[in-house]
Amino acid sequence: MNTKRLTFLAVLTAAALGIFIIEAQIPPLAPIPGIKLGLANVITLWALYALGARDAGLVLAARILLGALFAGSATALLYSAAGGALCFGLQLLLKRAAGEKNIWALGVLGAVAHNAGQLVCAAAVTGSAAVFAYAPVLTASACVTGLFTGLIANALYTKLKDTRIMQGL
Amino acid sequence: MKRSGFIIIISALFAASTGLALLLPRIKHGTTANIYRGGECIYSVDLSLVSESYTVDFDDGKSHVNTVEIAPGRIRVLEANCPDGVCVNTGWTDSPAKPIICLPAKLIIRISGEAPDGFDAVTGAAR
Ligand SMILES: [Zn+2]
What fold is seen in the domain B32-112? Predict the structure, then answer.
Protein backbone atom coordinates (compact mmCIF):
# COMPACT_ATOMS: atom_id res chain seq x y z
CA MET A 1 0.00 0.00 0.00
CA ASN A 2 1.54 3.33 -1.04
CA THR A 3 1.52 6.50 1.04
CA LYS A 4 -1.15 8.20 -1.04
CA ARG A 5 -3.51 5.26 -0.64
CA LEU A 6 -2.86 5.00 3.09
CA THR A 7 -3.49 8.72 3.55
CA PHE A 8 -6.61 8.47 1.43
CA LEU A 9 -7.97 5.60 3.55
CA ALA A 10 -7.30 7.64 6.70
CA VAL A 11 -9.22 10.60 5.26
CA LEU A 12 -12.10 8.28 4.31
CA THR A 13 -12.16 6.81 7.81
CA ALA A 14 -12.22 10.29 9.32
CA ALA A 15 -15.09 11.29 7.03
CA ALA A 16 -17.07 8.14 7.87
CA LEU A 17 -16.41 8.68 11.58
CA GLY A 18 -17.56 12.29 11.36
CA ILE A 19 -20.83 11.29 9.68
CA PHE A 20 -21.28 8.45 12.19
CA ILE A 21 -20.86 10.71 15.24
CA ILE A 22 -23.17 13.44 13.92
CA GLU A 23 -25.74 10.77 13.14
CA ALA A 24 -25.46 9.33 16.65
CA GLN A 25 -27.07 12.56 17.91
CA ILE A 26 -30.28 11.91 15.94
CA PRO A 27 -32.90 10.07 18.03
CA PRO A 28 -33.25 6.41 17.00
CA LEU A 29 -36.25 5.02 15.09
CA ALA A 30 -36.54 2.01 17.36
CA PRO A 31 -35.43 1.16 20.87
CA ILE A 32 -32.28 -0.59 19.72
CA PRO A 33 -28.98 1.20 20.25
CA GLY A 34 -27.08 1.87 17.08
CA ILE A 35 -30.03 1.83 14.71
CA LYS A 36 -29.79 4.92 12.58
CA LEU A 37 -29.84 6.23 9.06
CA GLY A 38 -26.53 4.60 8.15
CA LEU A 39 -25.18 7.57 6.22
CA ALA A 40 -21.61 6.51 6.98
CA ASN A 41 -22.31 3.55 4.72
CA VAL A 42 -21.90 5.85 1.70
CA ILE A 43 -18.16 5.80 2.35
CA THR A 44 -17.87 2.01 2.76
CA LEU A 45 -20.01 1.28 -0.28
CA TRP A 46 -18.14 3.71 -2.49
CA ALA A 47 -14.80 2.33 -1.24
CA LEU A 48 -15.94 -1.22 -1.98
CA TYR A 49 -16.25 -0.32 -5.65
CA ALA A 50 -13.50 2.26 -5.99
CA LEU A 51 -10.79 0.69 -3.81
CA GLY A 52 -11.78 -2.95 -3.43
CA ALA A 53 -13.01 -5.21 -0.65
CA ARG A 54 -9.88 -5.23 1.51
CA ASP A 55 -9.56 -1.46 1.86
CA ALA A 56 -13.30 -0.91 2.22
CA GLY A 57 -13.27 -3.51 5.01
CA LEU A 58 -10.37 -1.71 6.69
CA VAL A 59 -12.17 1.63 6.60
CA LEU A 60 -15.36 0.01 7.97
CA ALA A 61 -13.53 -1.77 10.80
CA ALA A 62 -11.64 1.38 11.77
CA ARG A 63 -14.86 3.41 11.74
CA ILE A 64 -16.71 0.88 13.91
CA LEU A 65 -13.91 0.66 16.48
CA LEU A 66 -13.28 4.42 16.63
CA GLY A 67 -17.02 5.16 16.58
CA ALA A 68 -17.56 2.99 19.64
CA LEU A 69 -14.66 4.79 21.33
CA PHE A 70 -15.97 8.30 20.58
CA ALA A 71 -19.74 8.03 20.66
CA GLY A 72 -20.65 4.76 22.23
CA SER A 73 -19.87 1.98 24.61
CA ALA A 74 -18.80 -1.65 24.55
CA THR A 75 -22.40 -2.74 23.92
CA ALA A 76 -22.78 -0.21 21.12
CA LEU A 77 -19.68 -1.75 19.55
CA LEU A 78 -21.33 -5.17 19.60
CA TYR A 79 -24.43 -3.91 17.74
CA SER A 80 -22.42 -1.77 15.39
CA ALA A 81 -20.12 -4.66 14.50
CA ALA A 82 -22.98 -7.13 14.00
CA GLY A 83 -24.82 -4.73 11.69
CA GLY A 84 -21.70 -3.61 9.87
CA ALA A 85 -20.46 -7.14 9.25
CA LEU A 86 -23.78 -8.38 7.88
CA CYS A 87 -24.20 -5.29 5.70
CA PHE A 88 -20.68 -5.48 4.29
CA GLY A 89 -20.86 -9.25 3.82
CA LEU A 90 -24.02 -8.97 1.73
CA GLN A 91 -22.64 -6.11 -0.36
CA LEU A 92 -19.46 -8.10 -0.98
CA LEU A 93 -21.52 -11.10 -2.02
CA LEU A 94 -23.69 -9.09 -4.43
CA LYS A 95 -21.05 -6.73 -5.79
CA ARG A 96 -20.49 -8.71 -8.98
CA ALA A 97 -24.20 -9.33 -9.55
CA ALA A 98 -25.00 -5.66 -9.10
CA GLY A 99 -22.20 -4.22 -11.19
CA GLU A 100 -21.35 -0.52 -11.42
CA LYS A 101 -24.85 0.49 -12.49
CA ASN A 102 -26.66 -0.93 -9.47
CA ILE A 103 -24.53 0.31 -6.59
CA TRP A 104 -27.69 2.04 -5.32
CA ALA A 105 -29.37 -1.36 -4.84
CA LEU A 106 -26.54 -2.51 -2.58
CA GLY A 107 -27.14 0.63 -0.51
CA VAL A 108 -30.71 -0.52 0.09
CA LEU A 109 -29.99 -4.22 0.68
CA GLY A 110 -26.98 -3.35 2.86
CA ALA A 111 -29.09 -1.07 5.05
CA VAL A 112 -31.73 -3.80 5.47
CA ALA A 113 -29.01 -6.33 6.35
CA HIS A 114 -27.44 -3.86 8.79
CA ASN A 115 -30.69 -3.56 10.76
CA ALA A 116 -31.26 -7.31 10.60
CA GLY A 117 -27.82 -7.91 12.14
CA GLN A 118 -28.58 -5.51 14.96
CA LEU A 119 -31.99 -7.07 15.61
CA VAL A 120 -30.49 -10.55 15.81
CA CYS A 121 -27.87 -9.19 18.19
CA ALA A 122 -30.54 -7.55 20.37
CA ALA A 123 -32.59 -10.77 20.36
CA ALA A 124 -29.51 -12.69 21.52
CA VAL A 125 -28.76 -10.20 24.29
CA THR A 126 -32.33 -10.13 25.62
CA GLY A 127 -32.99 -13.82 25.01
CA SER A 128 -36.29 -12.81 23.45
CA ALA A 129 -37.73 -12.56 19.97
CA ALA A 130 -39.82 -9.54 21.06
CA VAL A 131 -37.38 -7.15 19.37
CA PHE A 132 -38.43 -8.50 15.97
CA ALA A 133 -41.69 -6.59 16.40
CA TYR A 134 -39.64 -3.65 15.13
CA ALA A 135 -38.42 -5.50 12.03
CA PRO A 136 -41.10 -4.15 9.62
CA VAL A 137 -40.67 -0.48 10.52
CA LEU A 138 -36.88 -0.85 10.45
CA THR A 139 -36.91 -2.61 7.09
CA ALA A 140 -39.21 0.00 5.56
CA SER A 141 -37.05 2.85 6.83
CA ALA A 142 -33.88 1.05 5.73
CA CYS A 143 -35.28 0.92 2.19
CA VAL A 144 -35.69 4.70 2.16
CA THR A 145 -32.41 5.67 3.84
CA GLY A 146 -30.52 2.91 2.01
CA LEU A 147 -31.78 4.21 -1.32
CA PHE A 148 -30.53 7.65 -0.34
CA THR A 149 -27.05 6.43 0.66
CA GLY A 150 -26.92 4.01 -2.27
CA LEU A 151 -27.69 6.73 -4.82
CA ILE A 152 -25.03 9.00 -3.32
CA ALA A 153 -22.43 6.21 -3.42
CA ASN A 154 -23.48 5.37 -6.97
CA ALA A 155 -23.16 8.99 -8.14
CA LEU A 156 -19.85 9.43 -6.32
CA TYR A 157 -18.43 6.36 -7.99
CA THR A 158 -19.55 7.38 -11.47
CA LYS A 159 -18.35 10.98 -11.08
CA LEU A 160 -14.96 10.19 -9.52
CA LYS A 161 -14.13 7.12 -11.58
CA ASP A 162 -11.78 8.65 -14.14
CA THR A 163 -10.71 11.76 -12.26
CA ARG A 164 -7.27 12.75 -10.99
CA ILE A 165 -8.31 11.96 -7.41
CA MET A 166 -8.23 8.29 -8.23
CA GLN A 167 -4.86 8.35 -10.00
CA GLY A 168 -1.92 6.69 -8.29
CA LEU A 169 -4.08 5.11 -5.58
CA MET B 1 -28.57 -9.08 -12.49
CA LYS B 2 -30.45 -6.40 -14.38
CA ARG B 3 -31.60 -3.14 -12.87
CA SER B 4 -35.25 -4.21 -13.18
CA GLY B 5 -34.52 -7.28 -11.02
CA PHE B 6 -33.19 -5.11 -8.21
CA ILE B 7 -36.10 -2.69 -8.55
CA ILE B 8 -38.62 -5.55 -8.23
CA ILE B 9 -36.92 -7.12 -5.21
CA ILE B 10 -36.52 -3.80 -3.40
CA SER B 11 -40.06 -2.63 -4.18
CA ALA B 12 -41.46 -5.91 -2.86
CA LEU B 13 -39.34 -5.61 0.29
CA PHE B 14 -40.48 -2.04 0.84
CA ALA B 15 -44.17 -2.80 0.17
CA ALA B 16 -44.21 -5.85 2.44
CA SER B 17 -42.42 -4.15 5.33
CA THR B 18 -44.48 -0.97 5.06
CA GLY B 19 -47.68 -2.99 4.98
CA LEU B 20 -46.67 -4.96 8.06
CA ALA B 21 -45.47 -1.82 9.86
CA LEU B 22 -48.86 -0.18 9.28
CA LEU B 23 -51.01 -3.25 9.97
CA LEU B 24 -49.33 -4.77 13.02
CA PRO B 25 -50.04 -1.88 15.46
CA ARG B 26 -53.74 -2.18 14.62
CA ILE B 27 -53.87 -5.69 15.96
CA LYS B 28 -54.82 -5.33 19.57
CA HIS B 29 -55.18 -8.77 20.98
CA GLY B 30 -54.32 -9.22 24.57
CA THR B 31 -54.25 -6.97 27.58
CA THR B 32 -51.68 -8.86 29.63
CA ALA B 33 -48.29 -7.23 30.11
CA ASN B 34 -45.50 -9.74 30.62
CA ILE B 35 -42.14 -8.50 31.83
CA TYR B 36 -39.08 -10.56 30.94
CA ARG B 37 -35.47 -10.44 31.99
CA GLY B 38 -32.98 -12.46 29.94
CA GLY B 39 -35.86 -14.32 28.31
CA GLU B 40 -37.47 -15.34 31.56
CA CYS B 41 -40.84 -13.93 32.68
CA ILE B 42 -40.47 -12.14 36.01
CA TYR B 43 -43.79 -10.32 36.25
CA SER B 44 -47.19 -10.47 34.61
CA VAL B 45 -50.22 -8.26 34.98
CA ASP B 46 -53.62 -8.06 33.26
CA LEU B 47 -53.85 -4.36 32.40
CA SER B 48 -57.62 -4.52 31.81
CA LEU B 49 -58.06 -5.21 35.51
CA VAL B 50 -55.93 -2.28 36.67
CA SER B 51 -58.10 0.48 38.09
CA GLU B 52 -55.46 2.77 39.49
CA SER B 53 -51.86 3.39 38.41
CA TYR B 54 -48.98 2.08 40.49
CA THR B 55 -45.28 1.57 40.00
CA VAL B 56 -43.03 -1.46 40.47
CA ASP B 57 -39.21 -1.33 40.61
CA PHE B 58 -37.28 -3.99 38.71
CA ASP B 59 -33.71 -4.33 39.92
CA ASP B 60 -31.38 -6.66 38.01
CA GLY B 61 -28.95 -6.91 40.94
CA LYS B 62 -26.26 -5.33 38.77
CA SER B 63 -27.24 -1.71 39.45
CA HIS B 64 -29.87 -1.44 36.69
CA VAL B 65 -33.24 -0.31 38.05
CA ASN B 66 -36.33 0.18 35.87
CA THR B 67 -39.35 1.78 37.49
CA VAL B 68 -42.38 0.52 35.59
CA GLU B 69 -45.72 2.35 35.74
CA ILE B 70 -48.71 0.06 35.44
CA ALA B 71 -51.87 1.95 34.51
CA PRO B 72 -55.40 1.06 33.39
CA GLY B 73 -54.95 -0.52 29.96
CA ARG B 74 -51.35 0.56 29.41
CA ILE B 75 -47.82 0.31 30.74
CA ARG B 76 -44.52 2.21 30.48
CA VAL B 77 -41.08 2.55 31.97
CA LEU B 78 -41.43 5.67 34.07
CA GLU B 79 -37.81 5.94 35.15
CA ALA B 80 -34.62 4.00 34.53
CA ASN B 81 -30.93 4.46 35.19
CA CYS B 82 -29.74 2.80 31.98
CA PRO B 83 -27.30 4.95 29.97
CA ASP B 84 -29.37 5.23 26.79
CA GLY B 85 -32.82 5.96 28.25
CA VAL B 86 -34.39 4.20 25.27
CA CYS B 87 -36.92 2.29 27.41
CA VAL B 88 -38.26 5.51 28.97
CA ASN B 89 -38.39 7.26 25.59
CA THR B 90 -40.45 4.43 24.09
CA GLY B 91 -43.35 5.69 26.22
CA TRP B 92 -46.63 3.87 26.81
CA THR B 93 -47.56 0.61 25.15
CA ASP B 94 -50.81 -1.30 24.89
CA SER B 95 -49.99 -3.32 21.78
CA PRO B 96 -48.09 -6.53 21.05
CA ALA B 97 -46.53 -4.63 18.12
CA LYS B 98 -44.78 -2.24 20.48
CA PRO B 99 -42.70 -4.05 23.07
CA ILE B 100 -40.65 -1.90 25.44
CA ILE B 101 -37.00 -2.89 25.42
CA CYS B 102 -34.20 -1.96 27.78
CA LEU B 103 -31.11 -3.61 26.37
CA PRO B 104 -28.68 -2.59 29.15
CA ALA B 105 -30.97 -4.18 31.75
CA LYS B 106 -31.99 -7.01 29.36
CA LEU B 107 -35.59 -6.11 30.27
CA ILE B 108 -38.53 -6.54 27.92
CA ILE B 109 -42.17 -5.59 28.43
CA ARG B 110 -44.45 -7.38 26.05
CA ILE B 111 -48.22 -7.24 25.63
CA SER B 112 -49.80 -10.62 25.07
CA GLY B 113 -53.09 -12.50 25.34
CA GLU B 114 -52.14 -14.25 28.54
CA ALA B 115 -49.41 -14.89 31.07
CA PRO B 116 -46.78 -17.45 30.03
CA ASP B 117 -47.43 -21.08 30.97
CA GLY B 118 -46.98 -21.77 34.63
CA PHE B 119 -46.94 -18.09 35.52
CA ASP B 120 -49.76 -16.51 37.53
CA ALA B 121 -50.59 -13.00 36.45
CA VAL B 122 -51.26 -10.67 39.33
CA THR B 123 -54.84 -9.46 39.30
CA GLY B 124 -53.73 -5.93 38.62
CA ALA B 125 -55.51 -4.30 41.53
CA ALA B 126 -53.50 -1.48 43.03
CA ARG B 127 -51.57 -2.84 45.96
ZN1 LIG C 1 -33.46 1.37 29.52
Answer: mini-chromosome maintenance (MCM) complex, domain 2 (2.60.320)
- The pTM is what? 0.85
* Facing residue for B103 by CB, picked from A33, A136, A143: A33
Closest CB to B24 among A102, A131, A136 = A136
| Position A167 in a domain | no
Q: Residue B51: is its pLDDT beyond 60?
A: yes
Chain B residues inside the 8 Å CB shell of A97: 1
Tens digit of pLDDT for each residue in B65-124?
A: 999 999 999 999 999 998 878 899 889 999 888 899 998 899 999 999 888 877 776 655
> pLDDT-derived band of residue A169, with 50, 70 and 90 as boundaries?
confident
To test the contact with chain B by mutation, choose from A79, A119, A137, A138 the residue with the greatest count of B C-beta atoms within 10 A, namely A137
Helix (H) or strand (E) holding B16: helix B3-23
Q: Over 70: is that where the pLDDT of A15 sits?
A: yes
CATH code where residue A24 lies: 1.10.1760.20
Which of B1, B6, B22, B58 to probe the A interface (max A CBs under 10 A)? B6
Cβ-defined contact of A143 to B90 (cutoff 8 Å): no
SS3 B36: strand
Could you tell me the sign of the dihedral formed by the alpha carbons of B81, B87, B91, B94, in that order?
A: negative
Backbone angles phi, psi at B114, to 5 degrees: -155, 170
* pLDDT in the model for residue B126: 42
